[in-house]
Write the structure tokens for this entry.
Amino acid sequence: MSNNNDAAIALLEKHFDIAFAAPDGIKKLRKLILSLAMQGKLVPQDPSDQPASELLKEIEVEKNRLVKEGKIKQSKPLPEIESDELPYDVPKSWEWVRLATIGEINPRNTCEDDMDAGFVPMPLIFAGYRSLHKFEIRKWSEIKKGYTHFADGDVALAKITPCFENGKSCVFDGLPNGIGAGTTELHVFRNTFNCIYSNYLFAYFKTSKYLALGASKMTGSAGQKRVPTDFFSLNPFPLPPLSEQRRIVAKIDELMARCDELEKQRSDRDRKQITVHTAALNRLLIAKEQSNFNTAWQFITQHFGELYSVKENVTELRKAILQLAVMGKLVPQDPNDQPASELLKEIEEGKKSLVKEGKVKGLKPLALRDYEKLPFKLPSSWIWTSIERLCETIVDCPHSTPQFVLNGIICIDTNSFKGGKIINHKLRYVSKETYTDRVKRLSPQVDDVIFAREGSVGESVIVPQGMVCCLGQRVMLFRPAYVITSRYLQLSISNQLFWARLLAFHKGIGAKHVNVKDMKNALISLPPLAEQHRIVAKIDQLMALCNNLEKQIDHANSKQTNLLNAVMTKI
């Protein structure tokens, strides 16, 4: 066993760097450390240690003495442990036991009512690999009834979902007068016979095998499932010699500290990459001169592989691409393009006759103050204008919740789209009668832009070819005039800085939202029509690049994970 242990530990030590590289490698490494510990493979056995079998004999003697003195009750005989209950082999000096054999389960305290004690609700017990808990000081008389009892040295384990699955547990320590009470959602073990090192049992409660088996034994209704007391007290437990328990815990602490350091290094590395990348993008976005813009972009290209090894940076790159697009910095301007101002003149002329006929209302000229807070300067061929001037119509959804049916006509709401795409499996349907009622004001048509005005504000989608639909809740519809393409309008109103400015109008007022008035008056940057098409083509190209970057990151992560898994199977 000792030689096997040495080999396992050497392999474990050798591949800490592999765990560092894999996305969830450190988490897996922690689980492996605990698994090896409970199998007797983390530290070598010492033949001079008193075997666990002798501990059990001493426990039996001590039990009989305490029963005779009336300090504990005579317990009922527990069932023998059958071989098919054992999940793995343990060293010869170890014993498989039931916790109820070697200590008290869910004990009670006896003390004076006016004594200070520690009160521990579930939120004050933590789920990490260190035994951490806090407490509130209460008089014992206030908490002795209706709560779980415990004392310093007791080991507690949460029994209710999801606290159990998350491994919420602790060894109580530092309680006022050494006693406490708290949440009833705990199982507690008391080391009455001093045969176990509490931190060893605490480590056992953190193992993946124990948590998975306990979760499978839960009883109760959804959201209120609990691990039964019988599982806690009777499930076979690997008991090493007492001195070996201490060596195991010391080794676990040492290796967990190394895992902590690895996590800190990863966090520092990722934070540095994100910080550097954010600064580089900011330089791009605020560059007033082309030379400054080129310098910022050159830095990104020189460090491309390093900066885009984390998905957070790819996400930010997507946002920056959209922002650069609406600033006129994504593609070069062509002096042969008809300026956007001429496009607006054309559309204004076209509306004059409709205004005279009373078919549409005239638009007020944009006030000077509308231009005072413009977020950036545009190329000379571009123009700032309100969305209302660029659309044939803008309508809100009906202010009623439709009745949905299994099969019918599509009803698009905020659940129906994300990232500019329809989510087919989330589409809901209404009857023909409901559809007819909901399209009285306007029937959505191909190339209309549907925008989430509440909840997932900023999400939008273009009505695709062949789709017949009506509007659900919390959306509005834009029908662009010929001066602006649907795709350019979509990317403009889904740009993060755009809708963040709109949301600021309603800051602190209920759920985040914008309204039709906000959107009609909102200013966007309008390029020449030909340039709009070039911008959209460039965005599609760059978004494809972002997709490939994310795939490369996933592939690299998968490769490291597979390598780590291969190493772990050898231990």
